């Protein structure tokens, strides 16, 4: 369904060219829930926006993004708009910012149907109400007449999901869809996304930093750090036996929610390197307890490790070569 090959997203500034996404590659099979995780600043959201043709103004997108066999990199805006919404639906992480405050919720969902020629007039509004009911919003007719500020955050997120699936897309890109929600509403939204995937035969690209969300829905996981892929593999094997030290730290931090009181926090020193000041060799080496001189000098490449692939000179599980 989706093939990303050597994707780069860069920006030009006074200090030269800054590369935010640096040559990443992956594929997503039809019907799969593929999850991209990483800290803020890792490039995961920018990757999703590049796939949807929504990279920020001034960004240069390189490489290939083949969606359903068509390379969408460099498509004229008019042609990309026919793909986005109709074949690729998008759920944004800030539903209040994604919705127009001066139009009702129903009008905004109906607009997606009108723009893509699927319904007009009263039929479009009736289908908007039906979509709100599909995403389990109580009293959908009232919500359709409401403005975004008049409904709760959970309802706004459901409305954005209704808009994203209005045209029965093949691919759903969900960027941090549960970030601002409390635990109960988060669980309901995840259940909703699972049910819509089965009902509509959706392929889902989910972007998050919440490992609890990953455990609930992922078929495969890609871990990003500082604009690069550090690990990718089936969810079960990656979460049970992470190969990259960075993945291990992410998992350990997620487990802190279940730790007894007074347990020392699992932390990793330092922070994600700024654009334009990436370290030589492995980009994680300044924060990695397993780093050696090789890590500081040589860029690791993805290779078979455990049940997936990892870009690490000293992985936490043995490689096929180690087993020989």
From TrEMBL:
<dbReference type="InterPro" id="IPR003593">
    <property type="entry name" value="AAA+_ATPase"/>
</dbReference>
<dbReference type="GO" id="GO:0015833">
    <property type="term" value="P:peptide transport"/>
</dbReference>
<keyword id="KW-1003">Cell membrane</keyword>
<dbReference type="InterPro" id="IPR050388">
    <property type="entry name" value="ABC_Ni/Peptide_Import"/>
</dbReference>
<dbReference type="InterPro" id="IPR027417">
    <property type="entry name" value="P-loop_NTPase"/>
</dbReference>
<keyword id="KW-0547">Nucleotide-binding</keyword>
<dbReference type="GO" id="GO:0005524">
    <property type="term" value="F:ATP binding"/>
</dbReference>
<dbReference type="GO" id="GO:0005886">
    <property type="term" value="C:plasma membrane"/>
</dbReference>
<dbReference type="Pfam" id="PF00005">
    <property type="entry name" value="ABC_tran"/>
</dbReference>
<dbReference type="InterPro" id="IPR003439">
    <property type="entry name" value="ABC_transporter-like_ATP-bd"/>
</dbReference>
<protein>
    <submittedName>
        <fullName>ABC transporter ATP-binding protein</fullName>
    </submittedName>
</protein>
<keyword id="KW-0067">ATP-binding</keyword>
<dbReference type="GO" id="GO:0016887">
    <property type="term" value="F:ATP hydrolysis activity"/>
</dbReference>
<comment type="similarity">
    <text>Belongs to the ABC transporter superfamily.</text>
</comment>
<dbReference type="InterPro" id="IPR017871">
    <property type="entry name" value="ABC_transporter-like_CS"/>
</dbReference>
<keyword id="KW-0472">Membrane</keyword>
<dbReference type="GO" id="GO:0055085">
    <property type="term" value="P:transmembrane transport"/>
</dbReference>
<dbReference type="InterPro" id="IPR013563">
    <property type="entry name" value="Oligopep_ABC_C"/>
</dbReference>
<feature type="domain" description="ABC transporter">
    <location>
        <begin position="2"/>
        <end position="251"/>
    </location>
</feature>
<dbReference type="Pfam" id="PF08352">
    <property type="entry name" value="oligo_HPY"/>
</dbReference>
<keyword id="KW-0813">Transport</keyword>
